[in-house]
């Protein structure tokens, strides 16, 4: 269990992030156009998983914007932004923001994803949502970097995630 804060108030996740060197299960999410997208769809590329509570919060939206900007310049690397948001909300956000360089997807149909990754918020006002986490996978699908952001309202360390590739 990770202890994090939300607005300075202590909250908890259900476990710990996957260890560096492990391989994730092939989870399938729902993209903003309602099509499925699986981790295996990115095989042969480095993959940054930008996981967050909701695109309708300022820091979550900022993380998608920042990774969208960075992804435009990355070779052999993709960014998959994941939240519990419904695909309709993700589609609205991407359309309004011109988000085209990252893939956005919902894990609302895949509750075991957050549970297996140890990032499900288990108490407080965001209970049931994903905490703010970065997981970077190499081209073989192995975890090479993780970050559990200690304060939900804090942006992730973009530079460290990108440097891991």
Automatic annotation (TrEMBL):
Residues 18-165 form the Thioredoxin domain. Gene3D superfamilies: Glutaredoxin. Keywords: Antioxidant, Disulfide bond, Oxidoreductase, Peroxidase, Redox-active center. InterPro entries: Redoxin, Thioredoxin-like_sf, Thioredoxin_domain, TPX, Tpx_CS, Tpx_Peroxidase_subfamily. PROSITE patterns: THIOREDOXIN_2 (PS51352), TPX (PS01265). GO terms for molecular function: thioredoxin peroxidase activity. It holds the Pfam family Redoxin. This is Lipid hydroperoxide peroxidase. It comes from Roseivirga spongicola.
């Amino acid at each position: 269990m990770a202890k994090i804060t939300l607005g300075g108030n202590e909250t908890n996740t259900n476990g710990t992030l996957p260890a560096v060197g492990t391989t994730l299960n092939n989870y399938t999410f729902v993209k903003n156009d309602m099509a499925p997208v699986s981790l295996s769809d990115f095989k042969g590329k480095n993959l940054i998983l930008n996981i967050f509570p909701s695109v309708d919060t300022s820091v979550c939206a900022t993380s998608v914007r920042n990774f969208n900007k960075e992804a435009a310049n990355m070779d052999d690397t993709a960014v998959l932004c994941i939240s519990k948001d419904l695909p309709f909300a993700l589609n609205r956000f991407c359309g309004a923001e011109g988000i085209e360089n990252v893939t956005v997807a919902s894990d609302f149909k895949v509750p075991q994803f957050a549970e297996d990754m140890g990032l499900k918020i288990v108490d407080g006002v965001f209970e049931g949502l994903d905490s703010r986490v970065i997981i970077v996978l190499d081209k073989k699908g192995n975890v090479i970097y993780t970050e559990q952001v200690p304060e939900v309202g804090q942006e992730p360390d973009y530079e460290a995630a990108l440097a891991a590739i």
